[in-house]
Predict the 3D structure of the following.
Amino acid sequence: MAGSTFGNIFKITTWGESHGRGIGVVIDGCPAGLALCEEDIQAYLNRRKPGQSRYTTQRKESDAVEILSGIFEGKTTGTPISMVVFNQDQRSRDYGDIAEYYRPGHADYTFDAKYGFRDYRGGGRSSGRETIGRVAAGAVAAKLLDRLGISFITYTRSIGPVEISAFDPDAIDRNPLYMPDSDAAEKAQDYLEGCMKRQDSSGGIIECIIKGLPAGIGDPVFEKLDANLAKAILSIGAVKGFEIGDGFAAAHASGSANNDSFYIANTGKTAKATNHSGGVLGGISDGSSIVLRAAIKPTPSIASPQKTVNKSGENIDISIHGRHDPIIVPRAVVVVESMAALIICDALLLNMTARLDRICDFYRHV
Amino acid sequence: MAGSTFGNIFKITTWGESHGRGIGVVIDGCPAGLALCEEDIQAYLNRRKPGQSRYTTQRKESDAVEILSGIFEGKTTGTPISMVVFNQDQRSRDYGDIAEYYRPGHADYTFDAKYGFRDYRGGGRSSGRETIGRVAAGAVAAKLLDRLGISFITYTRSIGPVEISAFDPDAIDRNPLYMPDSDAAEKAQDYLEGCMKRQDSSGGIIECIIKGLPAGIGDPVFEKLDANLAKAILSIGAVKGFEIGDGFAAAHASGSANNDSFYIANTGKTAKATNHSGGVLGGISDGSSIVLRAAIKPTPSIASPQKTVNKSGENIDISIHGRHDPIIVPRAVVVVESMAALIICDALLLNMTARLDRICDFYRHV
Amino acid sequence: MAGSTFGNIFKITTWGESHGRGIGVVIDGCPAGLALCEEDIQAYLNRRKPGQSRYTTQRKESDAVEILSGIFEGKTTGTPISMVVFNQDQRSRDYGDIAEYYRPGHADYTFDAKYGFRDYRGGGRSSGRETIGRVAAGAVAAKLLDRLGISFITYTRSIGPVEISAFDPDAIDRNPLYMPDSDAAEKAQDYLEGCMKRQDSSGGIIECIIKGLPAGIGDPVFEKLDANLAKAILSIGAVKGFEIGDGFAAAHASGSANNDSFYIANTGKTAKATNHSGGVLGGISDGSSIVLRAAIKPTPSIASPQKTVNKSGENIDISIHGRHDPIIVPRAVVVVESMAALIICDALLLNMTARLDRICDFYRHV
Amino acid sequence: MAGSTFGNIFKITTWGESHGRGIGVVIDGCPAGLALCEEDIQAYLNRRKPGQSRYTTQRKESDAVEILSGIFEGKTTGTPISMVVFNQDQRSRDYGDIAEYYRPGHADYTFDAKYGFRDYRGGGRSSGRETIGRVAAGAVAAKLLDRLGISFITYTRSIGPVEISAFDPDAIDRNPLYMPDSDAAEKAQDYLEGCMKRQDSSGGIIECIIKGLPAGIGDPVFEKLDANLAKAILSIGAVKGFEIGDGFAAAHASGSANNDSFYIANTGKTAKATNHSGGVLGGISDGSSIVLRAAIKPTPSIASPQKTVNKSGENIDISIHGRHDPIIVPRAVVVVESMAALIICDALLLNMTARLDRICDFYRHV
């Protein structure tokens, strides 16, 4: 409902603006007994920290997280975990211009239309810094999922026109774009240099693979696992499209090519010969890896001249200067992973209540 | 949470199985005073009724809706509206085979994995008939939105490899595929004939345009309007992808091309020169038309032979016979529209609480 | 939110009006595998059926329940359970008077104030018949809880000034007032005869004891088990007060008298020497029986003359005739039990997610 | 669901432990445009601050609130308002004993039963300090309600056996017990002196009157206004009972005495001659003042010897020393008011969506 709360059982609420006191998140509903410390969170946050390459904003932020509640003797207590990153690099500057006009591709106009006014400093609540809360919470969800044998591989699939043509997981962390194909990463960097010269920006596609999820997770009808993943991913600013499995390509395929045959694996378990479904059938996990993709639009803040309007109702020409990423895709990789982790975690917790025999077993042993 | 409930203020709960007593929906939270009768609902349901063309299942169902509560003297009372379509064509047949094996591309295996067993008759709860409840509720939402000047155009954008290359809204209802391009519709029908001969099936893409929505609707962060639309659309069985505005194409574009310039229209209002955003900026409507697309996978029920497993853990060969659609895209058009209407309706109601000055005005006049 | 939906994991939505087509409920989130048939529901519904004694309305309703979905081969499937009781005794009569004025103690005026108009036939949605949906759902929750060793004893504690002074569980079903004290039941019947002669009505107090609930169920802070029980009980029409354990008497006691000492029982388990707390400490069950009470106001429909206003804004005198209960307490006993069962069921399901070690165990064995 | 989140549209999430870094709250869904500063919040917090009289704990806490987000240029922006009170007086002490045994009347045992362990320092999350977040949020809700003409009078109705017999609103703030009867306040102070000498504690009853609420607010069936108030009040630690209007006394009354007659007031509006209903009929406000009461149990921390058990499963004798309130009633007054304000605020926002004509009006003027 209220926009900044997310999840059902593992529920998070984020707060904070780009140039306010800080950015934070409260997790309500994290199970008790998970070993957790600030370093666990920081490792995730560092993946989205600014200033790490020439393709990301040069704003200086250590983005150091502090845990304010919910941990005792190194473990989660089951009560709310409050985390905060205080803002440091809030340059005092004249925001007057930004306050008066609406930047194309940004939420300036829509915030004014909805609320009557807005915190225009650095984009306020619609800034990319809002994702700090998501990533801090995602780190907790991912650590919990790790205990259940579930892991994530998330990476950049394409930058502008440059798509990966190889898949080497080890390559992902070796280039600033998080691409699993070093050659593609070099080409993409060349492409981005061109964008920057033209004072322009680029978009791209992020792919996330979730391994180890057992079959049977998710719900039919409205709470399908892929439906919840779609919402989670589209809730990230700048995402314009979502695919599960073959996605839009499935719309062009025939049923005989798109169906995944089942077979009995050597382990005796039911398995699928292919994974066109992306690990979900009827909204419920089918035991294969979950495969999803997010389409990210180009950064709307560009230095080249643009036409827009001001609050006085005049047509004006602007060019936006300042510290902006020519591409946000690399920094969004961990955000996509975090949102996916939150959904999977919530679905696993809810799924415990699906079958009476297992409920009876559970309480027999309590 | 529980899978069959959807929405926050305008909330619906659907129930029913393909071969059970019927399919129904309860709307809780519909405002009082909307003129509503069964014909309003029936008009929507008829758009998804089986047996209307040779491309849809020949199952005979009148799908006649009955309103059981919530209407008095021809108007909604503000209390729950219960609607039901009783099943008629439940052929008594031997379901034994289907009970024992898992159809590729269907939810048979995942339902068993989740619940331990399933109602296998006609797909049970995962049948396409489940969407009757969505469409009945969507008809109510759409009628309410019509009172606020909001309308929908929804159609088939592509069938397999055949995409529209013209856009004539009047053509949509003149072909059984609901395509706004009569030539494309003919080619698509040829393509489908081929699919049927090969005992195969096809997918396609549905597009929905929402007109008349004012700027300022939707919420930032997790409850973005496009995020909720994405969830709504992905919750429809067989949908594998979602796009808003330029969608995946935006990932390949540059910022200068993707940004929509604002200008002051002749009316004095702020408008956009283009609509790459698809009518949403930062999760909030920007006053342009909302444009979204859904990728629908090919019908998984095909008559050609397939490999799968049975519940005894054996690899087997099957071929599925019976009354199945070679393509579900045309019947899914109204389902996409219904889900979109539910989201828009809910967002408009919630938005009334966004600004204190408007709240004060509201209660001053009450 | 929307008024007719209740619960989180075990979620119900009720619908229907006193003189409409029927009354129903949809349960979404009932675990799969619970043996369930219409007789299970009917047994509960019969406890609230009208016409069973001279103290209840003589309206003739068989209140026969039909299950429309969610059951397959005699067991719940995990998908929504839709149940309906069709109305039979809808006498065609002139409702004109009731439509025009506001009955004191009823919701006529407040429904008009909220919705602008109302279904005035028999009270519409605010009729006591609305509780049919609650009781049908409560029967399912109670059957599930029975599998977990949890049981209920619910009874009338007082009628007007007549309170029980003995407690014989076997007596409860032997008198039409469901009192566990036969002597008190006789006195109460005498008292009611007097009320009826005076064309007046009476209230009373219902007590519910929940046995077998393990310690540790419920949540701290806002989702305290007793807070949710309070909401559930107050949501029943005519309830004006709620107590857990010693309730208001605790406000007059000293801490030394009110605290319950813990001790180690013969079984080796932690137990309490007394139960002033009513089985809840800090919002979480403490292993003792849950003890709660509901205060029910006298039936507002009385035949003696009353002053009120009509919709034309005139002061008028009325007297209400028709089929009304001089007391609703006996019929409300099963409603209180049903609401309590829904809360306990929901809390037990949610509690499965409280501890990481148990979650890991759960998924290790899946 | 998750225990520390409350409300639907005006939604709050609290966090923090008695001896952790601090206590905080995030409000998500507060309308934009409300003038708000830290002083507004502090005024409320000061009403529950410790150390203000000899009847409250002598723990030294300034309880100074900081607003971390959601305010821009002195007004709420519509995005989350994060507020924190950092803990100051966290004496470093040996908590060893408390960690090992279960204090009677406290949540020590139930937290261990639920979560497997607990933050035992000062009661951790179950401490009375948890209410800081509620009061900070309640201050915001109350300020918003003030704009709509809705106000609160909340006070102590009784302390142990001493009940008020006069009602002078001006007296409330003139005695440390917040009683509207100075004579009763003196007697109550004498009574508390006796309790303290006996190393014992006392409970009491708090009453809250809500003025200015228009008729028509609240929902029928499960979301009755009084049901939500009951949950809100019972969610406060130590509350054991709730009444609306005549409450339990209604159970002993006759219908003719309990019904409130309607009449046309001089203003031309519908009014009630009496207010036995406490301002709610059928779950919806009737235009009279809302009147509710909360029964508070005696402080469980008493210095006199008690019997209990330790985690090793042994019966032991304890006496609790430290800084404890002999009565928490006076400090709970503002907590009751805060919880009531949250419910009323949420109900008013939701109510804007009840009628189509008003929705159409609203959007016509937007």
User: Anything to note?
Assistant: The radius of gyration of chain A is 22 Å.
